[in-house]
Amino acid sequence: MNEEKPDYLGHRQRLKDRFMRDGGKSMPDYEFLELLLTIAIPRRDVKPLAKQLIKKFGSFAGVITASYEDLTNFSGLKENTVCILKIIKEAAIRLNWQVLHNSDNPIINNWDSMIDYCRSAMAYQEYEEFRIIFLNPKLAVIGEEIQQRGTIDQVAIHPREVIKSAVIKGASAIILVHNHPSGNVTPSKSDIDITKKINSAAEAVNIKVIDHIIISKYDYYSFKEKRII
Fold first, then answer.
1. What is the per-residue pLDDT across 162-218, written as a single tens digit (0 to 9) for each?
2. How many CB atoms lie within 10 A of CB 54?
């Protein structure tokens, strides 16, 4: 006697078929997440779990960028599932970085890609983080460094350390980036003052500060565009 298959198996196949038709572009966030969860949790109807996660964290991006602690404390998620979600996040960051780092083009020709990388790497952090992106004489990306990690609303930035790192990396130019977890990308007076100090220090050793970018989940602020530097 044939054992009756669970109803969700047919639903899973339909999800896969829809994904293969257009790469998931027509799928709402909860269905896209549901399809991912079917890989992590093969013997369970995961549609309710996907909806609960989207409700809790707001979006697919919100789920995969949620902290490890928040995910492990969420009912229904085990370590293997959390690991897969974090792999997806890191894969997105690595993809965006390699688009930048593997290109010989000047960064100004890849500006959208640069913003995409900064957003994927930093915008969903719960604390402020300050990074330097190093450029060669042709203004192509040659590396990066996380200089400082701070609190939810501030991070310490030291001009001397910024310039020291740029010199060690052999950079001809740099881009400064930090995030505002609050979502408000308006620079503080301290942000403006420290940027001007770094710019002056960089000019003294013939290193150009291309920009200082404040990034958030949905917006960014460019010091260059606002003509602060």
1. 999 999 999 999 999 999 999 999 999 999 999 999 999 999 999 999 999 999 999
2. 20
Rounded Cα distance between 181 and 193, Å, is: 20
pTM of the model: 0.85
Q: How far apart are CA 46 and CA 11, in angstroms?
A: 11
CATH classification (class only), 106-222: alpha beta
pLDDT digits (tens, 9 = 90+) for 4-38: 556 566 788 888 988 999 988 999 999 999 999 99
End-to-end CA distance of the chain: 76
SS3 category, 44: coil
Answer positive or negative: Cα dihedral of 158, 138, 144, 97. Answer: positive
Q: Are strands 141-149 and 220-222 parallel, antiparallel or unpaired?
A: unpaired
Give the separation between CA 190 and CA 213, rounded to whole angstroms.
14
Task: Indicate the DSSP class of residue 208.
Answer: E
Domain with CATH 3.40.140.10 in the chain: 106-222
